[in-house]
Design goal:
With 220 residues, the chain is mainly α. It is 60% helix and 3% strand. A two-stranded antiparallel sheet has the order 1-2. The longest helix is centred in the last third of the chain and has 21 residues, at 197-217. The chain is elongated, with a radius of gyration of 25 Å. The chain starts with 6 loop residues before the first helix and ends with a helix.
């Protein structure tokens, strides 16, 4: 498997390719970007091509606009972020080379296993997470429960788990056994539509206290 590349390197390589294809100088590209409010120099463009400039939405859009104008060809932001190699996104998370470009083109949705830079590792992580979930939720959990868990657990559940000093799988398992839903969902149900933050906070504290008591007793 190819090693993931920093996104800045991908942008730099694609920028340089377009510039060379149209026999443009660094200064010509820099001057064109000034039409879009950028105060870039030839040295700035060279830094981008070397992968030394952070990739931001304004940077990519400005380059796309400038290159489209100066080459008289459509250069889309997605074109500047395509790669034959996996691309680093956050920390050690990387995706396949065209995944970012496809997302910018409007193909937004849950990432597929094949979109990951290392599909085998992703599958192992999913299986491990499912095992932790099944263990925490108990024998009553169904395959459907496990499949929907990741999309259902929210920030409120994670924060509650932190306050209780337990992992979110244990918290969710206990909540599932008590209410057949997550803690955050139980709060929303008991608070009712349009509940104020104060009311939701009160119910959250009440339900957390119930969970803490159950966990201290070791309820099954």
């Amino acid at each position: 498997m190819k090693q993931p590349r920093p996104l800045a390197d991908v942008l730099g390589e694609n920028l340089k390719t377009v510039r060379k294809q149209h026999a443009l100088t660094l200064d010509e590209v820099a001057k064109e970007t000034r039409s879009y409010g950028a105060k870039w120099t030839a040295q700035r463009i060279a830094g981008m091509e070397a992968g030394k400039v952070s990739v931001t939405v304004p940077t990519v859009c400005t380059l796309a606009w400038a290159l489209s104008a100066i080459t008289d060809n459509d250069v889309h932001p997605a074109d500047l972020l395509r790669s034959d190699s996996p691309v680093e996104v956050n920390g050690d998370f990387a995706v396949g080379g065209n995944t970012i470009a496809e997302t910018l083109e409007g193909n937004v949705g849950e990432l597929r296993i094949k979109d990951a830079a290392d599909p085998d590792r992703t599958i192992r992580d999913v299986v491990d997470a499912a095992g932790e979930t099944a263990s925490a939720w108990g024998p009553g959990v169904t395959v459907g429960d496990i499949r929907s868990l990741q999309s259902r657990i929210g920030l409120a559940d994670r924060r509650a788990a932190d306050r209780l000093g337990i992992d979110v799988h244990t918290l969710s398992g206990e909540a599932f056994r008590r209410w057949a839903m997550l803690l955050s969902e139980a709060v929303d149900e008991q608070a009712g539509p349009g509940a104020s933050p104060q009311r939701k906070g009160h119910i959250t504290r009440k339900l957390e206290a119930e969970l803490r008591e159950a966990l201290d007793r070791g309820d099954d």
